[in-house]
Amino acid sequence: MNKAKQLYELQEVDLEIQRKTEALAQVRSQLGKDDDLVAARSAFDTAKKHLADLEHQQKTEDWELNELGAKIAVIEKKLYGGSVKNPRELTGFQQDLEILKTQRGEREDKLLALMMDVDSLHQDVGLKKSDFEKIERDWNENQQKLSQQQTDLETELANLEQKRNLLAGQIDSDSLSLYEEVRRVKQGQAVAKVMQGRCQGCRISLPVSDQQRARMGQELVQCSNCGRILYLS
Ligand SMILES: [Zn+2]
């Protein structure tokens, strides 16, 4: 059997193993990576908390306004009820009433502004909620896909390793060592096809004698320029 052909076939498997190993590393780095999900959840939580704070303020303001209303009613009863006759006392109550009514007006404005803020925050919370839910759905879907890809790649790699062992077992150890050595130096591609008299590793034109030796396949011939093992099919 042609030694260079055997090495070329081994190289095909090795390159496939390399590609799948890189893909697996990529998949593993994405598995469990949840930055976007965490950010969306945090934005949703912050908006909810902000809304709760404002709603609490609104309740307090509402309560204060009722208190003020009750105070005003008491004074108005005194003023217009006829129980207080003293003009000085009446003037005093009149002044108190004016002050309280001014305060009430201010509080009503404040409450109105708060209610509008609460309204728009409600919408904001709704948006952030649907954002988060969508991101969470997509994330779950994607994680499932990645998990499946991981399983598939692991299975494929196990099969390729098995195939590699079978192929390597049929190759003599000297050829294998040379292959491993060139592969290390050339970072992956140890065997180069010869096409139209050129080494496909470095594109140089090869001496005819090298081409002939490579075609015979009895011995391994290396490219005189790049050192790759030549394979002529
Ligand atoms: Zn070459």
Please give the structural blueprint.
Elements: H1 3-30, H2 35-81, H3 87-169, H4 173-185, E1 191-195, E2 198-199, H5 208-216, E3 229-231
Parallel strand pairs: 1-3
Antiparallel strand pairs: 1-2
The structure holds zinc ion (ZN).
Zinc ion (ZN) binds next to loops.
Description:
This protein has 233 residues and is mostly helical. It has two domains: 31-169, Orthogonal Bundle (Helix Hairpins), CATH 1.10.287; 172-231, no CATH class. It has five helices and three strands; from the N terminus they run H-H-H-H-E-E-H-E. It has a three-stranded mixed sheet with strand order 2-1-3. The two termini are 12 Å apart.
Strand content: under 5%
How many strands appear in the DSSP assignment?
Answer: 3
Number of domains: 2
Q: What is the CATH fold-level name of the largest domain? A: Helix Hairpins
- H/E series: HHHHEEHE
Structural class: mainly alpha
- Rg calculated over all Cα atoms: 42 Å
Strands of the biggest beta sheet: in what spatial order? 2-1-3
Shape descriptor reads rod-shaped
The small-molecule ligands in this entry are: zinc ion
The first-to-last residue Cα distance is 12 Å
